[in-house]
Amino acid sequence: MSSLIQLTLVRFKLVLREPEAIFWIFIFPILLAVGLGIAFRNRPADVLPVGATTAQLTQALASDHGLKAAELDEAAGAHALATGDILLLAEQGPNGVTYRYDDTNPDARNARLLADRAIQAAAGRRDAVTARNELVHETGSRYIDFVVPGLLGMNLMGSAMWGLGFAIVEGRQKKLLKRMVASPMPKWQYLAAFLLSRLAMLVIEVVVFLGFARLAFGVPFRGPLWQLAFLCILTSLVFSAIGLLVASRARTMEAVSGLMNLVMLPMWILSGVFFSASRFPNVIQPFVKALPLTAAIDAIRGNMLQGTELHQLLGQVAILAAWFCVPFAVSLRIFRWR
Amino acid sequence: MADALSSWEKTEASAARARGPSLRIRGLKKAFGDVRAVDGLDLEVFPGECFGLLGPNGAGKTTTIEICEGLTEPDEGTVELLGRNWKTGAKELRQRIGIQLQETQFPDKLTVEEAVRLFRSFYRRGIAVDEIMRAAQLEEKRKARIGGLSGGQKQRLAMATALVGDPELLFLDEPTTGLDPQARRHVWDLVDDLKRAGRTIILTTHYMDEAERLCDRVAIVDRGKVIALGTPQQLIASVGGEDIVEFAVSRSAQSPALAAEIRRGGRGDGARSELSESGTASAAIDPAILKQIPGVQSHRVDAGVHQLSVSELHTAVPRIFAALEAQGLHLSEFRTHSATLEDVFVRLTGRNLRDE
């Protein structure tokens, strides 16, 4: 057994001594989460710029918090409208007010509604029904909440597959695999060491990423944490097994990276990392659902966002278990040691 | 000349033989497509022996040794190591033999000590990591990354990983190929230590001087077959002469350049490749005349250079000079050296070891 420990230790050290690996495994997912978090952050409702031709109208418009009003004469107003500096120009005519705006622009339509309400209210209109606003910003329904489990799944897939695939093919190219089987080392231990060192890495990887998502964005963890941990481990094992299979015959780095991309690309697109997989047509849904990354991300999302219990996720877990057993068994059979 | 073994060594050797061979190969054959890499090979290696497989690249040495190591399946024939075979005793054999392969590259980012420790963990019993570091003279490099080691140090590390299980049978496949002369001598010293410790070693090489220096017995392998077998002394003696005379002749008067060539040429077993570049066209010479000279055992021409194997060098050389003089030929090159295993190979195959 000490040989299994040594093999795992060696694998672990080799990964940690590879600066690029550290970047892709630990830093990259955080950068991605930060980028997406900034891009899709929930901003306060926009203040819409509008203009009016008289001081009275301008004052009426400025009384609405959703509007920013400027007093402009007709020529300046038309110019500001054309260049997009304002969305709407309210003109005082002899028979009332004229609103000039582009009705294909949703913001301009909003400005029209707000401006009319402000001007009518200033003119003395009373609401027939009293209404009160209660604002809701629910965590768990934001885009960042949706995308964090997706990124986690994608990262578990990428680091397991690249980590295993490259290390194995490199060992084969440098005849290290041949040297290993020339020693009394049990072959299964060599492969098992990859899985074990992945699991050790996984603890750091997942804790760093989810910890960041929690602290920076307040992403919720509604399901039991041990079940989330179980899902992460299962996901990592699945992609380690697939990585092993992909690398089991390849002799060159080019061959193995081509195969990896071939395997991973459909999942990046179809498995609902950045948007819901249910957007794809019904015809291909069974295929999409059978992909390991879809199952993994669905299960992790269910756990984190809805607090779904493991026994309600048995479908996904079964798909993942199959994606672990079959590739691992096949790669043990066809693995090329020299 | 025949048997260099002292009577004590003879007793020792026969006692080892009585225990049965460490390695026995019978009728080994292996083909890769149309190429018959190993073509009916028989060998026996006895305990405590350092046995060399000598031959040019592509002779089938590596295929043979990898079949012995259980890494390649033979097409035909049997291999028995330490009384076991690979079909039924693989697990036990892996524990009892040590292997150094050609061109293994250990991970660059691992340290020397980590690599040795890893391999030590595969063996139930073996040599302590500290001790093996000392034996392989890698103590100073313990903490160094493998990527920063020299070729010789990497080779010693490969040998350390082969030795760490305290093997009863050690395989070294081209242990010094690609090393500079100093690193080669370093590896030789290491092999000497192993021999003194009584280990059974099987090594392949295409360097005749290496085989001569290290091996108790040598099998010369060519095209998948053993073409000669014995102690280096026996094999050299089989050439029929103890010295080799090499010369080139021309009919023209000597040019200053050629005279310089002769001066450079008089230093024993110089590099042969240099000769063919000397630009001297070989003048017609009747081999029969040379063979009639007393003491000349054989004659051949290679790239314009005549090679005679000669006994009684001191009396034969003046006669060779005289014979050439009588033919009206001028020497453009002349040198002599003691016969080596290379000459044995040339004699047996008509080719040079390094021609391949």
Detailed description of the structure:
The complex is a heterodimer of chains A (338) and B (356). Chain A is of the alpha/beta class and 338 residues long. Chain A folds into 2 domains: 2-40 and 139-334, no CATH class; 48-122, D-Maltodextrin-Binding Protein, domain 2. Chain A contains 13 helices and 4 strands. A 4-stranded mixed beta sheet of chain A has the order 2-1-3-4, sandwiched between helices. The two termini of chain A are 24 Å apart. The mean pLDDT of chain A is 88. Chain B is an alpha/beta fold and 356 residues long. Helix content of chain B is 37%, strand content 25%. Chain B has a 6-stranded mixed beta sheet with strand order 5-6-7-3-8-9, with helices on both faces. In chain B, strand 1 and strand 2 form a beta hairpin. The longest helix of chain B is centred in the middle third of the chain and has 16 residues, at 181-196. Chain B starts with 6 loop residues before the first helix and ends in a 7-residue tail after the last helix. The A-B interface holds A 2-3, 5-7, 10, 13-14, 17-18, 171, 174-176, 178-179, 181-185, 338 and B 69-71, 91, 94-95, 99, 101-107, 109-110, 114, 117-119, 121-124, 161, 165.
Spatial strand order of the main sheet of chain B: 5-6-7-3-8-9
| Most extensive chain-chain interface | A-B, 22 and 26 residues
Structural class of chain A: alpha/beta
Helix content of chain A: 55-70%
Q: N-to-C terminal Cα separation of chain B, in Å? A: 31 Å
Low-confidence stretches of chain A: none
The multimeric state of the shown protein is: heterodimer
